[in-house]
Amino acid sequence: MTEKIIIIGSGPAGLTAAIYTSRADLKPLMIEGYQAGGQLMLTTDVENYPGFPTGIMGPEMMDLFRKQAERFGTRFITKNVTRVDFSKQPFQVFIGDKKEESEAIIISTGASAKLIGLKNEKRLMGKGVTTCATCDGAFFRNMEVAIVGGGDSSMEEALFLTKFATKVTVVHRRHELRASKIMQDRAFANKKIQFIWDTTVEDVLGEKEVTGLRIKNVKTGQTSDLKVAGLFVAIGHTPNTQLFKGQLEMDENGYLITHDGTKTNIPGVFACGDVQDHVYRQAITAAGSGCMAAIDAERVLAHS
Ligand code: NAP
After folding, report:
1. Residues 88-124: pLDDT tens digits?
2. 63 is catalytic
3. Which residues contact 292 (CB under 8 A, 6 or more apart)?
4. Domains contained in the chain, number
5. Of 233, 250, 274, which residue constitutes the final position of a domain?
6. I need a labelling partner for 113 at 20 to 30 A (CA). Which of 143, 231, 240, 304 fits?
7. 236: Cβ below 6 Å to ligand 1?
8. 176 backbone dihedrals φ, ψ, rounded to 5°
């Protein structure tokens, strides 16, 4: 059977596209992935999504999005797409050996947190190394932690971590922050936050859990050890676009390029959410672009 619409990815963008396309009676098939729900599954309180004046937990919000999509007939496959072929109609989407075909595709595979790339960073992931302060901050009550990165995410997380940690050390590779002025001011004003400039993390120390970092001053070349119980990595995100390499146009960082709303370079293939947006990266903007993708897809299908 050829589907009308397959949606790949199940964060706020994909689930909003599912709500709109299912209400338009296009009976979307969503391939939600093993780790369904996207980045909001890694957050706690969402306080800036309109309609929730007292806030809502990220996973609970995604559950509500999913139920709403299901209510109008969205079908879900809780597996990962392993390959796609968009070279001809109908488009082909593979989940292992299983092939699904569709007249239109909406891509909402999002982005994932970047890692520094150290062997021990991976090994100690979840044992003191984390990419999500809001998820894991509370585990570091009365401890000293470090955070890597000089952007808004890093400042936001450093400030959040001061609720729990006794001291938060920002380790940044340059001598100035990339973060916006307001975030910088807030971080500089917080006495629990310290900065180590011009410094990279060379290794994460600890056998069973993080006990410290080996850091290196890039100006002097000098290495030293910093005693911390946690390392928060906040150095940006990578779009999840590996599947589409060679088929869809991407910018130099791998984000899908969209034009006229959510259209990719292949007519009938649309992209929404963080996979095509490295600027706003909010649940509300992702949801908004998911709605746009659904409307764009509906219009194309109406003329096919
Ligand atoms: P970002 O702005 O790209 O900042 C990444 C930071 O990590 C930079 O300071 C960068 O250093 C550093 N970095 C990158 N790779 C590194 C590596 N391998 N080793 C060490 N350091 C590394 O990313 P972001 O902070 O996640 O923010 C992304 C976007 O979301 C931005 O547009 C931001 O404004 C927005 N955002 C806004 C808010 C808010 O307004 N509340 C909150 C979060 C995010 P360099 O500076 O040297 O390049």
Report:
1. 999 999 999 999 999 999 999 999 989 999 999 999 9
2. no
3. 261, 262, 272
4. 2
5. 233
6. 143
7. yes
8. -140, 155
